[in-house]
Automatic annotation (TrEMBL):
Substrate binds at residues 298, 302, 329, 356. Homodimer. The keyword Lyase applies. GO terms for biological process: lysine biosynthetic process via diaminopimelate. This is Diaminopimelate decarboxylase. It holds the Pfam family Orn_Arg_deC_N. It comes from the Bacteria. HAMAP family: LysA.
Length: 410
């Protein structure tokens, strides 16, 4: 998409606005497929939590993607998008047994990550195939909030609890058909990922009826020009060799599954905002925009970096701005960022806004959540309408209460 395309979309649908480029999503999907093309059966299950718009799910499913879900609601979204139940993996954390049983009834593959629920489920449903999520105790991830494979993580069953896990499986007679791991997001060191994979292979040897091994995802994408990223091609070459050898050792071909979210949609997303005010203080020039961390929380939550371009004046003289939102809290997208000269009314485009952006948006300050647009074959398709005041109060119940006057003793 060009700057002119983005300006046209902003003019048509207003701001703030999320715009997703279908061609970039397809490019990333095909790149991951190509990296592992030498493995007989590779399946990509898109991580729905990254961006859960039904039109995005339908588009990814049209490319051949299954879905990785973490809630019964995401399972239902995937089904609504036309995804076959058998192409949905459900990997929750800390949910009730009742929710897991609800997902089983919908036909999705379940993935259990704690011994308590595993034992309860196995006692009640030994006939249902179950995948097990292990914690390899390998730390990966660009931020403590997105590193999930370490020793203190709430995710997964510790590899040191394998004897207990095996005892539960034997006592219940349950069928374990897959082993899963996820070390965290923003993986850079391929050797660390491969070490975790060896732990997954060792765990898999304890089960005779496996159909697949699920390696999660967490592949890093570039956030700025010349940024480092996961070398998918190198990982594909090295993990393919090791996976094939393991299948020979195991005695049959298994399916290899990845669960990318950010890798597929992050770079495809742009977040368009309009500049409301330029405010000069004694030391800073603020560009105040018509949005805030209620719409894009990642910079305040993770300290994440999003490149910001002034698409209304891309060739202007560079100046330094702090780009801030309109929320009544500290609400900063960028500090002293070098951006082409900004004037009030300009449209700014935030990069890497496809993953964990709209999906984490809220109505804080009673602001409406923005619209979403999918750019496909040179045309803008509205895939979510901007919220209205009616949406804001739709589920509120207004109760007429009469204030009680203070009791005064005579």
């Amino acid at each position: 998409m060009t700057n002119q395309d983005l300006l046209q979309v902003a003019n048509e649908f207003g701001s703030p606005l999320y715009v997703y480029d279908a061609a970039k999503i397809a490019e990333q999907y095909q790149r991951l497929q190509a990296a592992f093309s030498k493995i007989k059966d590779v399946r990509i299950h898109y991580a729905v939590k990254a961006l859960s718009n039904i039109s995005i799910l339908k588009f990814l499913n049209s490319l051949g993607s299954g879905m990785d879900t973490v809630s019964v609601q995401e399972v239902r979204l995937a089904l609504k998008a036309g995804v076959a139940p058998e192409d949905i993996i459900y990997t929750p954390n800390g949910v009730s047994l009742e929710e897991i049983e609800e997902v089983v009834a919908l036909g999705a593959q379940i993935n259990i990550d704690n011994l308590s629920i595993l034992e309860q489920f196995g006692a009640r449903h030994p006939e249902v195939p179950v995948c097990i999520r292990i914690n390899p105790h390998i730390l990966a991830g660009g931020n403590s909030k997105i590193s999930v494979g370490h020793v203190d993580s709430k995710f997964g069953i510790s590899i040191h609890q394998m004897p207990l896990l095996i005892r539960i499986v034997e006592n219940t007679g349950m069928n374990i058909n897959g082993i899963h791991m996820h070390t965290g997001s923003d993986i850079l060191d391929i050797e660390v990922f491969l070490r975790a994979s060896e732990i997954l292979f060792d765990a898999a040897k304890n089960f005779d009826n496996l159909e697949f091994l699920d390696f999660g995802s967490g592949f890093k994408v570039p956030y700025r020009e010349n940024d480092i990223e996961t070398d998918i091609e190198e990982l594909g070459e090295k993990l393919t060799h090791r996976f094939k050898n393991f299948c020979k050792e195991y005695g049959r071909e298994l399916t290899l599954i990845f669960e990318p979210g950010k890798f597929l949609v992050s770079e495809a997303g742009k977040f368009l905002t309009k500049v409301n005010v330029i405010k000069q203080t004694t030391s800073t020039v603020f560009a105040g925009v018509d949005t805030g961390f209620n719409h894009l929380i990642r910079p305040m939550f993770y300290g994440s970096h999003h490149d910001i371009k002034n698409i209304s004046n891309p060739d202007g003289k560079f100046r330094f701005y702090s780009v801030v939102g309109y929320i009544c809290e500290t609400d900063t997208f960028a500090n002293n960022r070098r951006i082409p000269e900004i004037t009030e009314g300009d449209i700014l485009a935030f990069s890497n806004a496809g993953a964990y952006s709209f999906s984490m948006a809220s109505n804080f300050n009673s602001r409406y959540r923005p619209a979403e647009v999918l750019w496909h074959n040179g045309k803008a398709h509205l895939i979510r309408e901007r919220e209205s005041f009616e949406d804001l109060i739709r589920h509120q119940k207004i109760v007429d209460l009469e204030a009680n006057p203070a009791h005064v003793e005579e």
